[in-house]
Amino acid sequence: MPLRSKLQISITILLGVASTAIAAHFSSGRWMEFSLLLVVALLSSGFKVALPRGDGSMSLNFPFILYAIICLSPLQVLLLAALSTAAQCRVRVVKIFTAVQIVFNIANTVLASATAYVTYGFLLRHGFALLPALAIASFSYFFISTVSVAAIIASSSGEDTFKLWKAEFVWYLPFYFVGAVLAAIAFWLGQRFGWSTALLIIPMIYTCYRAYSGQVERLKERQRHLEETQALHLRTIEGLAMAIEAKDQNTHDHLFRVRTYVEEVARTMRLSDQEMKALHTAAFLHDIGKIAVPEYIINKPGKLTPEEFEKMNIHPIVGADILERVRFPYPVVPIVRSHHEWWNGGGYPDGLKGEEIPIGARVLAVVDCFDALVSDRPYRKAMSADDAMALLKNMSGTQFDPAVVGVLDSIYRDLEKKAQELKLPGFSRLNIQVAVGRGVAPGNGFEEKRPSPSWTQVAARKEEQLLVSFDQLEAAQQEAQAFFELSQSLGKTLRLNEIVAVMTSRLRNLVPYDACALYIRQGESLVAQYLEGEGVKPFNYDPIPEGQGISGWVAQNSKAILNGNATVEPNFENRFGKGSGLRSALSVPLFDIQKQVFAVLTLYSSTLDSFQHDHLRILQAMEPKLSLSLQNALHAQYAESCSAAGVRSADQEQLLQMEAARI
Fold it and tell me: Angle at the Cα of 62 (from 106 to 160), degrees rounded to 5?
């Protein structure tokens, strides 16, 4: 229990005890009437109206306390309030009250009754009629008893006391006024027909109890409907988040961490409830527009081309259009559309700047960037939290809102600890690797298979394109000569290591590099067949899963990468200090006769952005000859392994045919 709640409970109990001590100094009479009224109040202790939320309930002993205020002494009023409240804490309770809760409830009712007694007496002495004085006294009773309970609940849940009181307790006020009227009627009947006739208040109170019980049930039904609707929204959000995760494998943990971060930052900045709900949703859905971006662009472990970046930039607009149709009851769409806007107006898609950008988008932009920096990405390794925060501070005032950066700077270490301890809910990844065996053919039929062009045709076409694209005659002659020598040398051997050695020695004159790697595809992994060069020390021979790192991405997407980050390769382990680090990579796929990637050739350099488009063009021009030579070498190597194993001639031929078909 928070210290604030403990302090409030202690003050209430002390005031209740003080009120009782003061009331004991006044003389008391009419104990017979008090006893009968107490018995009736105790018997009615089972009549309770449950609060709309939580385990609390509203007491129906209030009309009896008001009647006692009119007829009995202060001590008798407080005794009636205390004993009837104690009974209510023990009779027909949903959840057993603790000793502290019982004492607090008794003290709270005693304090409210004392306030109502003093208010009623003061108003009568100043000329008020009985009913107006009793109505005002009932309001004072209502205010004191409900505000103290609201304060305890609010301090325990972190809510605003006044907002909670207004939302949960104000609607009970009419019952207190009705109770004042009933107490006045009972007093009038007692004065006219004898005090025993005042017991007619019991059926009237029971009627009010039934009416209010029905009203509370309807209110609870509406509350359940609202909770079900909110749960449906949450399930919709999680379903859409899974759609994002199916496209971008890096978003699974990222979504939950960002949600945790934005909630803490928003709470520190005291954003409104609507803004908090919108941020909570946008944290999940801000990248949903990526479903319109090709997967190879999203997971590319290298720099994007201008065309690829232009395609990536549409995702805030597409995401906003998708969520516009959901019609969330809070402003999610503006956050999703503007979460890539810059504070200085240099962002996209609308070029908003400063406070033109929605506050939720400004918070999400800072948190999203911070979490991205401290997480592994296909194109780089994770940064430390301190380095990431330093980078955000450098971009404060240009890309990010300085106020949001300042808030994050004050709490990011605590957020990082919370993120590391974060236990993700049962949010399973989508299975997109399933295979469907049904279906004979697509409606439009299968594409007709055409024979692949011969290597001589492909090589001639590549040579022609190569020669045409050269800007200088001297460079054209040098590259053509190197290509001719490479073709001649590769045709003289079928040994894999010799072919790779010839390839790398000829290639170095055209494309400078510090390390060269040839990866052969085996199943869903790449195996390093050859590592050469001064920069190979950080590499090991562990298999690279398809899709991971630069070479894995190239194998999966059949596309080349220019100047990718070499350190994201799964088999890269820089154990030799910063001096041995490689900073850029050029990777190209090698295709078999079925146009399937069977190997990847990757060159690494210790210089940032070392490779040029001409280097990529040269490798792509040499690819057909390299691929054919490597396939022949692999075929021969497999044949030798079969012979060494003693395989019969017919079986060997069959295995060779199968291997040829595979590569």
Answer: 65
85-107 pLDDT per residue, tens:
888 777 766 677 788 888 998 99
Three-state secondary-structure class, residue 340: coil
Secondary structure letter of residue 575 according to DSSP: -
Angstrom distances, CA of residue 150 to CA of 85, 155, 168, 216, 649 = 18, 8, 8, 18, 90
Q: What pLDDT does residue 404 have?
A: 92
Quote the mean pLDDT of the chain: 78
DSSP letter at 406? H
Distances (CA, A) of 552 to 304, 378, 434: 17, 10, 21
Residue 603 in 3-state DSSP? strand
Q: Give tens-digit pLDDT for 516-562.
A: 999 999 988 999 988 888 888 888 889 999 988 899 999 998 999 99
Q: How far apart are CA 182 and CA 387, in angstroms?
A: 70
Overall residue count recorded for the chain in this entry: 663
Report which of 327, 326, 323, 325 is spatially closest to residue 339, judged by C-alpha positions. 323
Q: Rounded CA gap, 572 and 539, in Å?
A: 5
pTM: 0.56
Q: Which residues, at least 6 apart from 430, have a Cβ–Cβ distance to it below 8 Å?
A: 242, 243, 245, 246
Q: What's the half-sphere exposure (Cβ side, CA atoms, 13 Å) at 187?
A: 19
Residue 95 three-state SS: coil
Pair type for strands 57-59 and 515-522? unpaired
When computed from its CA atoms, the radius of gyration of the chain, rounded to whole angstroms, is 39
Taking the chain, what is the end-to-end CA distance rounded to the nearest angstrom?
Answer: 68
Q: CB neighbours of 343 closer than 8 A, spacing ≥ 6?
A: 353, 354, 357, 362, 396, 397, 398, 399, 400, 401, 402
Structure tokens at 412: 């990011």
Helix (H, G, I), strand (E, B) or coil at 343: coil
